[in-house]
Amino acid sequence: MAQQVITTLVDDIDGSEASETVVFGLDGKTYEVDLNDDQASDLRDALAPFLGAARKASSGRAAVRRTGSAKPAGDSVAIREWARENGFDVNDRGRVPASVRAAFEEAQRA
């Protein structure tokens, strides 16, 4: 026996038949609302001034601000070279272990 399931979206604002689900975010939370074409257009028009002035987030998570003494990528090449010359085992790629970086910095101060 075959079965057919039909899903009908209902506009969350006025109860009419909705044509799409609009996904948006605010204050770190993501929302979905089912809207007809007119309501979806109204929402986009209302948000347009804010979207025009906003920066696009790179991902769904909150941005991370890094502070402190971040080392440029070029330093990693010099550190890896020094580490190999001084008996440390380091990979060609990826993060340089903190212990190796600390030893390199100590050697530079001496």
UniProtKB/TrEMBL annotation:
Keywords: DNA-binding
Lsr2 DNA-binding domain location: 74-107
Entry keyword annotation includes Ribonucleoprotein: no
Occurrences of domain Lsr2 dimerization (ranges): 1-57
Coiled coil: none
Protein origin, superkingdom: Bacteria
InterPro entries: E3-bd_dom_sf, Lsr2-like_dimerization, Lsr2_dim_dom, Lsr2_DNA-bd
Protein name: Lsr2 family protein
Source species of the chain: Streptomyces hintoniae
